[in-house]
Design brief:
Layout (H helix, E strand, L loop, with lengths): L33 E10 L2 E11 L4 E5 L6 H7 L10 E9 L2 E2 L7 H7 E4 L10 H11 L7 H11 L3 H4 L12 H13 L5 E5 L7 H14 L4 E5 L3 H7 L2 E9 L6 E10 H6 L4 H7 L5
Parallel strand pairs: 3-8, 3-9, 6-7, 7-8
Antiparallel strand pairs: 1-2, 1-4, 4-5, 9-10
Helix pairs in contact: 3-6, 4-6, 6-7
Bound molecules: adenosine-5'-diphosphate (ADP) and magnesium ion.
């Protein structure tokens, strides 16, 4: 399988829609696996996210935090073209994955979503057996698989679920607990061999013990994958993330609508111990949001 999401290198002129804006001061590492350059995300005329410049490091866990409605989910969904499925949603600026513009005309969004997988807030297993949940992605994408049994075992092992389900692979995924279902969804994502796993508040429907298991799992997964997690739980960000990006919502000068902006992005300890921006300080100390 080709390493690039772009079918042929000649066909990829990397059109630049606009030059990167200079008004967001972030310590974006230029070597990031995914890079946002002056990203705006719209729903129709409403600009939900404005001018995000951000670079996600390979094999790092990055947390996106900030008050409700500041555009965390919107930005996350734009990183693997999940917003394409939302009516009226539109991205401006550039989002690069391994230096390829994921919104370029010749890029296949299905391939983007395979390479950059997603796990949602509420565990959403398919109404199928545990085995078939994992085998589904490889089957529909016609992945070349020498042994589906081995692939299923490997994905479930990586998601720290194998020991709990190995004797009931043919049973419905709905028989699993919430925490097990969420690990199944992670295994399902892993099964198609992504590079990046996006997680949108993956623990918010889980109890503390199930949450801890997912957090431990994230630490293990980080060896093989790049993880970007939205969380409203600041302790969780502090526990799992290498870097943290704090967003807030500002009133747009012209329309008065509130739009999400990136305030500060730094190694997690810096964000929580020495935030540079007063708004970050206010948020992490619980003064708003
Ligand atoms: N499908 C949608 N259509 C229109 N507006 C949306 C849609 N999804 C989110 N929004 C709006 O975009 C803004 C950001 O939402 P969201 O990304 O869900 O924020 P967060 O995840 O930080 O809580 C909010 O004002 C929200 O109402
Ligand atoms: Mg959200």
């Amino acid at each position: 399988m080709s390493d690039s999401i772009v079918p042929s290198p000649e066909a990829s002129p990397h059109p630049s829609f606009r030059s990167p804006a200079a008004n967001t001061s972030v310590s974006a590492s230029p070597s990031g696996l995914i890079r946002c350059e002056a990203v705006d995300v719209f729903y129709g005329d409403f600009r939900a996210v404005t001018d995000v410049n951000l670079s996600f490091g390979k094999n790092e866990i990055t947390a996106l935090i900030g008050p409700s409605g500041c555009g965390k989910s919107t930005l996350l969904r734009s990183l693997n073209r999940m917003n394409d499925l939302v009516d009226g949603a539109r991205v401006e600026g550039r989002i690069l994955f391994q230096d390829d513009d994921i919104y370029a005309k010749n890029v296949d969004p299905i391939e983007v979503r395979r390479r950059i997988g997603m796990v949602f807030q509420k565990p959403n297993p398919f109404p199928k057996s545990i085995y078939d949940n994992i085998a589904y992605g490889p089957r529909v994408t016609a992945m070349k698989v020498s042994s589906m049994d081995d692939l299923v075992e490997e994905a479930l092992t990586k998601a720290a679920l194998w020991d709990e389900v190995k004797d009931k692979l043919k049973q419905s995924a709905f028989g699993l607990s919430g925490g097990q279902q969420q690990r199944l969804c992670i295994a399902r994502t892993i099964a198609t061999q992504p590079d990046v796993i996006l997680m949108d508040e993956p623990c918010s429907a889980l109890d503390p013990i199930a949450t801890m298991r997912i957090e431990d799992l994230m630490h293990d997964l980080r060896r093989d994958y790049t993880i970007i997690i939205v969380t409203h739980n600041m302790q969780q960000a502090a526990r799992v993330a290498d870097r943290t990006a704090f967003f807030t919502a500002l009133a747009d000068e012209t329309s008065g609508d509130r739009t999400g902006v990136l305030v500060e992005y730094a190694p997690t300890a810096e964000i929580f111990e020495h935030p540079k921006d007063q708004r970050t300080e206010d948020y992490i100390s619980g003064r708003f949001g």
